[in-house]
Design brief:
The protein has two domains: 138 residues, no CATH class; 193 residues, Rossmann fold. The strands form two sheets. It has a five-stranded parallel β-sheet, with helices on both faces. It has 15 helices and seven strands. Helix 6 runs parallel beside helix 7 and helix 12 crosses helix 13.
């Protein structure tokens, strides 16, 4: 039975997330052999294909490679830096861009590398006052209208540090800082950071709280969210051009939708499609037909979002198996509804095509003339 994962909320769930292997692809038979299967065997086979498609290969786009490289370099530079706040990173971009997937992907790779090359760090060490449990990664997804105290509570919950619900923000934060120092935490990820309450009233409190956490731990902080560049987290109060200390300590990486305005951009977009397409387990799908012939259709449907593209192809693969068509075609993809932004982009693309079609078919009728004879 393949594991199904929700967002990890504590260190044990995070470890299960890291340890889990993706579903193995079943051995593809001939189509005739598939048709001759018993109903039970066919269900098992299709279920294995569905599991594999559900966890379809992640695409290391140039943007992903660059960001992962920069994060790895930042952690390397910060590792043995003298006491004080480390430089962090802000990852900004619209919703459904795959920011959460990207950062968990990096963090999981980073911890697996530590386990491989520094296994001695993961041996439980029993001290006089505590049991040291090496926790290099802390991943926190922030809930709606979270306060600075909620940040400390979320970290405490991830580390599984007990605390009294009646405790003050300062008391919980002190416990959290002590735990992170004992556990050797190197990377703290705040996902959905736009949910933090950084209104005019709370903005300074939030910034001071982040400054405290960064100053008294040896961790690198990474923040993910939407519209962070113009939030009160980075621009102080009403002085919208005055950067906060949080802004001064972090550089910004903005994720944007893929464009297809140049030949190089078209080729890069087609490569991403081909990578996803290459992993399909369908009997009648023409190899790379999506990348060769339908790259523009896929861009119209998804607006250039890799997350939306992955969802569309994965659900289309499911429909291709369920319907017996065994191929991803435009009619199959037309049946799939993805995220609202993708739907809106597709509607705009249809409107543009209709206008172009009308302009091409408009015929200017010649003015008729009559001649009279004297």
């Amino acid at each position: 039975m393949h594991p199904m994962f929700a967002e990890p909320h504590n260190k044990e769930e995070w470890r299960r997330y890291i340890d889990a292997a993706p579903p193995e692809p079943p051995n593809m038979l001939s189509y005739n052999e598939y048709q001759e299967m018993s109903e039970s065997d066919r269900w098992q086979f299709n279920n294995s294909r569905a599991a594999y498609h559900s966890a379809l290969v992640l695409v290391r786009t140039p943007d992903v490679k660059r960001l992962h490289y920069e994060l790895d370099r930042r952690l390397e530079v910060n590792r043995y830096q003298p006491a004080g706040a480390r430089r962090g990173k802000v990852i900004d971009g619209p919703a459904t861009m795959g920011k959460s997937t990207l950062i968990k992907w990096f963090a999981a790779d980073y911890e697996r590398k530590l386990r491989k090359f520094a296994p001695e760090r993961f041996v439980t060490d029993e001290g006089r006052e505590y049991v040291r449990d090496y926790i290099p990664i802390v991943y926190v997804s922030i809930g709606s209208e979270a306060t600075p105290k909620d940040l400390s509570i979320a970290i405490a919950n991830f580390l599984m540090v007990p605390f009294k619900s009646s405790a003050t923000k300062t008391a919980i934060t002190d416990q959290v800082v002590k735990a992170m120092r004992i556990c050797g935490t190197e990377l703290v990820i705040f996902d959905e950071f736009h949910h933090l309450d950084v209104t005019l009233k709370e903005g300074k409190v939030a910034n001071d709280h982040l400054k405290h956490l960064a100053n008294y731990t040896a961790a690198t902080f990474v923040y993910l969210g939407s519209n962070l560049k113009t939030s009160a987290l980075f621009l102080e109060g009403r002085a919208r051009d005055r950067a906060t200390q949080t802004a001064a300590r972090n550089d910004l990486h903005t994720m944007s939708l893929y464009k297809i305005n140049t030949q190089d951009q078209i080729e890069e977009w087609a490569k991403i499609i081909a990578t996803l397409e290459d992993s399909l387990l369908l009997f009648k799908h023409e190899p790379y037909s999506l990348a060769r012939r339908h790259w523009r259709y896929l861009h119209n449907r998804t607006g250039g979002s890799i997350a939306s593209l992955s969802h569309l192809i994965r659900e289309s693969a499911s429909e291709a198996i369920r319907s017996g068509i065994e191929a991803i075609t435009v009619p199959v993809m037309d049946q799939i509804s993805i995220d609202q932004r993708g739907n809106e982009h597709a509607a705009e693309a249809r409107k543009r095509r209709r206008k172009q079609a009308v302009s091409k078919t408009t015929v200017h009728q010649p003015v008729s003339s009559t001649t009279t004879s004297a």
